Amino acid sequence: MRTESELKALLTAQEQHAVLLLVENQFAPKGNKRTLEDIAEEVGVSARQLYNYRKDNPAFNEYKTLVANQMLLSKREIVDSQLMRLIEGTSNNGNGSIKAIELYYKLTGALKDSVTINSEQSKTQVKAEDVAANIEALRATLK
Nearest 5°: CA angle at 71, between 60 and 77? Predict the structure, then answer.
């Protein structure tokens, strides 16, 4: 993945401005969302050009992802405080959320989703004719 400065070097000022407005629009509350036409007008391009930026320019989309990730990281303290309210039960009728507790333990590394099973069984190879013979024997018992 390219750095922010590498991506900016590949984009025009209009494209960079469009990225910022598009990402801000993604994070905007439902009633405050802007249309692509409004964003294109503010950037100084047509809605079609804005569509082409998104469709034809991998650097545009990569930069958009980078800016969105930065914006998401800036919300970390909000997410953490909401998680703690859910754990403490202050936002859930006084009951702590089991899912929030589980998430907390996963985030801290105290709980993992995977299980490792070690087996000491020997690995044996089976011949195709042996399998065929076993199938025929089973068929004979079913008749």
Answer: 165
